Amino acid sequence: MSLLALQEKLQIASKDFQKLQSDLSVAVDARQRLDAQLSENEMVKKEFALLKPGNEVYKQIGPVLVKQDQAEAKSNVDTRLEFIRGEINRIEVQIKDVETKSEKKKLELVEMQTAIQQQQEQQQ
Q1: Which CATH architecture group holds 3-123?
Q2: Are 96 and 85 in contact (CB under 8 A)?
Q3: What DSSP string runs through 11-43?
């Protein structure tokens, strides 16, 4: 393969690697947001456990607090926790996939750079 063709392939692979790094960054950010949501909802669940049957629960909708049934509120938090955990698992799989692809692309880049260096040395 010619030096020029190798350099073009290297440039394309480099762009692919940068895209993978960007995808990884987005996925890690999403994972961090989900962790924050998980922690917040677990705190709410702990607070709900302290409620007595007669305590009133309010839900904020925009600027307004609306009375909500305690059992319904607890159920909503449990459902939200289940959803968040599912999303965390999905994102974890996505992160591992992108990391694997990124590592392969990195090795490919190193191999191409080595091939380019060897060709440049042969031309000198």
Answers
A1: Orthogonal Bundle (1.10)
A2: no
A3: HHHHHHHHHHHHHHHHHHHHHHHHHHHHHHHHH
Our CA angle for 64, 67, 69, nearest 5°, is: 145
Q: Are 38 and 80 in contact (CB under 8 A)?
A: no
Residue-range domain boundaries for the chain: 3-123
Q: How many secondary structure helices (H) and strands (E) does the chain include?
A: 2, 2
Contact 94, 28 (CB under 8 A): no
pTM reported for the whole predicted model = 0.82
Span 86-111, pLDDT tens digits: 999 999 999 999 999 999 999 999 99
Instruction: State the Cα–Cα distance between residues 60 and 73, nearest whole angstrom.
Output: 12
Chain segment 30-76, per-residue pLDDT in tens = 999 999 999 999 999 999 999 999 999 999 999 999 999 999 999 99
